[in-house]
Amino acid sequence: MLLSNFKNRKKDDIQQEERQFIVFTVGQERFGVDVNQIKQVIPVMEATHIPNSPSFVKGVINLRGDIIPIIDLADKLSLKQSQVDEEKKRIIIVELDEISNIGMLVDTVTEMIRIHADKITDAPEIARAVHTDYIQGVAKIDKQLLILLNLNKVLTTEELIELGKIEF
Q: N or C end of the chain: smaller count of CB under 10 Å?
């Protein structure tokens, strides 16, 4: 009886050490983001351009009555743009404290995976040397590295303030 309780508890502990990530591509890079950061993933919608907005702001969309600014992650993260069929592109909706919702434009959303905590390592020193607070860590998946992002930290405080000044 006691042994079976121990086995069940150990199994629960192992499950708690796993985290779920949505995997997406931007340019030639693969990224993962914790599913708890994402409100929803939607197909690309036509955005209304906002004059005098930062270059990485592609515009705003109206999603069920909510006006949501759209950030181009390739532009924001200084990644090469890739030629991707528009039908494959997605907008990842994230809830931020300063702005209720923000959309992140990505090339493709490929899968949802579970990663065991011991497969995740801290971001390399070189990434921490420059402003990359948004890199949570790196995971090795099938002999490839997956960069794990915290989308809540992709925008700096100054950029969030600037976004807040844009009239929608």
A: N
Q: How far is CA 102 from the centre of its chain?
A: 11
Neighbours of 77 (CB within 10 A): 19
H or E element in which residue 19 lies: strand 18-26
Q: Structure pTM?
A: 0.80
Q: How far is CA 143 from CA 33, 64, 82, 119, 146, in A?
A: 19, 41, 23, 12, 10
Contact by Cβ (8 Å): 76, 20: no
40-67 residue pLDDT tens: 999 999 999 988 888 899 999 999 998 8
pLDDT tens-digit readout, 87-140: 899 999 998 766 678 999 999 999 999 999 888 888 766 555 455 778 888 998
Domains parsed from the chain with CATH numbers = 20-165 (2.40.50.180)
